[in-house]
Amino acid sequence: MASISEVSSSSSSSTINPTNALVLPNILYPVIGQLDKAGYKDMQTDLRTTLFKLEEIYPGFSNNFLQSFMNKETPLLAATTNMNELTLKLEKHCDKTPYYISSSRSEQEFQELNARSKNLKRILSRIPDDINEKREFLETIKEIASAIKKTLDSVSNTYQYFKTIDGRQALENEKKEFIKYSKHFSNTLKAYFRDSNRDDVFIAANHLLIQTDYLLRTIKLYCETDTLDECLYPLLSQHQNQIKTVSSRYSSNNQHQHQQQQQQQHNIRQTSATSNNRPSSTYDANYS
């Protein structure tokens, strides 16, 4: 197994590996959920929390742990398993009920958002099965594009239920991230039809799965009273730090531009005042 220091150093990149964030909820959590059937129900919470904390401190820990376990116990299976593909494919088999807006919000906008985001994630999870048939894959791509648009429309429809400026800003930030990764997914597809790199498509699709979860989490955070289960969102802290960094850069650039504009306006006023106090051109000519 890779050492913790290796996991930490290999995960220092500012770009989040979406597969690392999906190994826990899509592979390990469902396995932990079966412990009650084996008589170990009292271990579930502690084991789940421990793995989550390790993932937060050492991003990629769960992925490395699982791959190392497979290399030792099932080397043939490990050699043929693509973790990016597996986490994407398993999305449709996982119970993701806690990620969606609870039934306590019966408004049509929230129920529509649940239905459309579920549909988007379901179609994305079909990619590993459809990618080998070009005609079928092209139809899947069309469905994904439509599902992305409908999900974004549903997100916008929930703005009216946000009571604070902070909440609306948080949702706006997550929406921008979702759009950014939607464009990245589109660009990855264009590249795929040139270089046939399926793994890049799986990773880009996993990014969209994660961004959908982050969008839903923000809405739940500001529109529900129930306590969120933070263990559902591995690497969320990294994602939030990225948004803060981008927002900070944007604010700094805006402030710098504003200062430049003020300086330019000051210079114009100074020049204008100087011109008004100077003699006319005829006077200058005669004087010289």
TrEMBL record:
Q: Where is this region: Disordered?
A: 247-288
Q: One MF term in GO for this entry?
A: protein kinase binding
- Give the Polar residues compositional bias ranges: 268-288
Q: Which InterPro entries match?
A: PDCD10 (IPR009652), PDCD10_Homolog (IPR053750), PDCD10_N (IPR048288)
Where composition is biased (Low complexity), the residues are 253-267
Q: Name one Pfam family in it.
A: PDC10_C
Q: Which domain of life is it from?
A: Eukaryota
What is the protein's given name? Programmed cell death protein 10 dimerisation domain-containing protein
